[in-house]
């Protein structure tokens, strides 16, 4: 019974604690898409990614060619020669897998480069968000782009995304 009274007291005081608090949200995806530097970063990341994808495709093609050559000459090879060629192909496959993991794997070079290129832009945006939040005396500012579970409903009058764009010196037409 005592637990229920404490819980009831806590629940009754909760609205008092949040009175006077201002809340808002921004859509960082919207802000990023409006920022001209983001387009440059995306182009650079895509160019780098396609370059690495071509390299990975080249390795895959080399492996296919080795398999095709082996298939064509299979009847002419001794068991020992066949095993040597299979060993060469398997080594090439290991190299290809290692390359893909090193470049595209978790915390791979592609991910690291993307993070490195995005860091300055993200810092600018979060600094602008900080200034907008302080200037508008916001207690909490949610990010609408962080996922569907973060915000179920949003009232457009609480969207501060345009204020952040303004703080960054960007107009709505970018």
TrEMBL record:
InterPro entries from the entry? Chaperone_Skp, Skp_dom_sf
List the molecular function annotations (GO) for this entry. Answer: unfolded protein binding
Q: From which residue to which does the signal peptide run?
A: 1-24
Gene Ontology biological process terms in this record: protein stabilization
List where this protein forms a coiled coil: 49-76
Q: Does the keyword Coiled coil apply?
A: yes
Q: Which UniProt keywords apply?
A: Coiled coil, Signal
Recorded family membership: Belongs to the Skp family.
Q: This chain belongs to which protein, by name?
A: Outer membrane protein H
Q: Give the species.
A: Lunatimonas lonarensis
